[in-house]
């Protein structure tokens, strides 16, 4: 049992010498090399996508923006080992978006489009950008989610794989400390303001914590020493109001953290 009363398996591999990593809810995959970490994540995503296509005929993938996942997205596209990803059967969703146009370099979708959408054979109707600039973006995205996932059998109408990042203030997606998206009832996506500390400081549209926690597989990818302190506070029992990523607790799905050496707590040098 950990500090949260959860007894989920803790799996830490590949660190030599072994270090004590934060005891997070779910499984922890920690790798000394970034290359190995991204390989692990890419293989897990590929296997999960193939299983979903086998089981449901399609795969619903939601991706985050920010800097951290970009090398991962590039690897998925150029490494021949991941050619098996069934892009033609994939629906690509956004975890969150900044209130800027897609051609703006701060746009999450803009960057994901350049790296993934433009180089895969995902049918255009299966690509679901968040149009955060449009009034009512959250409601519109929520409708699109309900309508698209509604084709699936009841109970299977949820996202299959959600890739998350973590900010230095403990935010995940665009769910900032004290955010209404932490506890938004039945809402699946919503427009939210951005706190002044957030970069870039523009309003956002985000999936709510409810949508994230309904997913079949949730994968926070966290790298760099600056994020270790946040993870340590989450492991020590910080509240989701304080550190929103502490609210990531899939109800009937798997939570698997992917940490590099520094985020896991290894001292450099
Ligand atoms: C965004 C993200 C956000 C991100 C974290 C971490 O639009 O900013 O989706 O939730 O994952 O801020 O960002 P970095 O990976 O750039 O540190």
Descriptors for this entry?
about 270 residues; alpha/beta; three-stranded antiparallel beta sheet; globular; disordered N terminus; binds 6-phosphogluconic acid
Computed CA radius of gyration, to the nearest angstrom: 17 Å
Order of helices and strands: EHEHEEHEHEEEHEHEH
What share of the residues lie within helices?
A: 25-40%
Terminal CA distance? 33 Å
Q: What is the total tally of β strands?
A: 10
Query: What would the average pLDDT be, to the nearest integer?
Result: 91
> What are the low-pLDDT stretches, counting only 5+ consecutive residues below 50?
1-11
Q: Which molecules are bound besides the chains?
A: 6-phosphogluconic acid
Q: What is the count of DSSP helices, taking H or I runs of 4+ residues?
A: 7
Strand ordering within the main sheet: 1-10-9-6-2-3-5
Overall shape: it is globular
**Alpha-beta classification:** alpha/beta
Largest sheet descriptor: 7 strands, parallel
Summarize the model shown:
By secondary structure, the chain is an alpha/beta fold. Helices cover 26% and strands 17% of the residues. It is built from seven helices and ten strands.
Describe, in plain words, how this protein is organized in 3D.
Strands 1-10-9-6-2-3-5 form a 7-stranded parallel β-sheet. The chain has a 3-stranded antiparallel β-sheet with strand order 4-8-7. The model is unreliable at 1-11 (pLDDT under 50). The chain is an alpha/beta fold and 269 residues long. The two termini are 33 Å apart. Helix content is 26%, strand content 17%. The protein contains 7 helices and 10 strands. Helix 1 (34-56) crosses helix 2. The structure holds 6-phosphogluconic acid. 6-phosphogluconic acid binds at residues 64-68, 95-96, 98, 108, 165-167, 171-174.
């Amino acid at each position: 049992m950990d500090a949260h009363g959860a007894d989920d398996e803790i799996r830490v591999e590949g660190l030599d010498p072994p270090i004590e990593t934060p005891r997070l809810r779910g499984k922890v995959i920690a790798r000394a090399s970034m290359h190995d970490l991204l390989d692990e994540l890419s293989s897990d995503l590929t296997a999960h996508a193939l299983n979903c296509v086998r089981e449901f005929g399609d795969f619903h993938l939601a991706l985050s923006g920010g800097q951290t996942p970009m090398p991962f997205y590039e690897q998925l596209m150029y490494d021949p080992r991941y050619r098996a990803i069934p892009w033609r059967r994939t629906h690509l969703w956004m975890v969150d978006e900044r209130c800027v146009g897609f051609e703006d370099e701060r746009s999450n979708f803009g960057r994901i489009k350049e790296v993934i959408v433009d180089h895969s054979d995902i049918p255009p109707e299966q690509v679901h950008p968040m149009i955060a600039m449009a009034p009512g973006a959250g409601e519109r995205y929520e409708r699109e989610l309900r309508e698209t996932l509604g084709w699936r059998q009841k109970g299977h109408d949820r996202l299959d794989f959600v890739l998350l990042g973590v900010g230095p203030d403990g935010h995940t997606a665009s769910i900032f400390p004290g955010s209404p998206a932490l506890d938004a009832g039945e809402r699946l996506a919503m427009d939210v303001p951005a706190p002044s500390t957030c970069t870039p400081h523009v309003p956002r549209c985000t999936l709510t914590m409810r949508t994230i926690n309904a997913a079949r597989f949730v994968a926070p990818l966290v790298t760099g020493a600056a994020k270790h302190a946040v993870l340590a506070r989450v492991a020590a029992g910080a509240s989701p109001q304080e550190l929103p990523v502490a609210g990531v607790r899939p109800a009937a799905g798997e939570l698997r953290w992917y940490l590099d050496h520094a985020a896991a707590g290894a001292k450099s040098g």
